[in-house]
Amino acid sequence: MITDERIVTYLHSLEQPNSEFLQKMELYAKEHRVPIIRKEMESFLRVILTVKRPLRVLEVGTAIGYSGILMAEYLPEGGTLTTIENYEPRIAVAKENIEASGYTERITLLEGDAMEILPTLAETYDFVFMDAAKGQYLNFFPEILRLLSPGGILVSDNVLQEGELVESRFAVTRRDRTIHSRMREYLHMLKNHPQLLTSIVPIGDGITMSVKVSEN
Ligand code: SAH
Ligand code: MG
What we know:
The protein is an alpha/beta fold.
């Protein structure tokens, strides 16, 4: 946990309950140990989407479609969301959920490894939500930057890794160490990139929000 547990409990107590549909998905995710965005990220996404009103949204990491369906609700008229997932069992559940949500027109699910799919995408996106394998954010980044429209927004989730990002490297396993050092590299890159303006927001599991401020 990044922030004090009492603060998190308090912040969560201020949140409005989700629609029944999303609540059912939350329960499923809990039961089946599917990672989904935290409450802090839900509110963050709702607000940013409402401010930005993006016509084209890209999500990397669908899981069972929870964040995708939540975002679809906040798109402007004519807005669409493309989401990428490579884990077959989750793809099947995501498809069912998208169907049941009534957002089949709005949401397109692309099946496969984002590393292979991203280079095949041609049109730009106004908003990208990065929420796939945490060790791979850096690898996805060049394609994400290419796909971001001018003024486009990139939001990344889980960038502080439960706060472990700043723990001694001896306190974490070798796999986590690798993920953490790659994530630190990602944050450093986002904060120093000449085409981006980035804010790191230490709520939930750590969020970044970047704006593409120049084309080169
Ligand atoms: N955004 C979702 C949660 C995503 S969890 C939500 O909040 O509801 C991260 C997902 O990314 C996992 O389901 C995992 O299978 C997927 N993933 C990880 N690496 C990937 C890759 N290289 N290509 C596509 N999907 C990937
Ligand atoms: Mg996440």
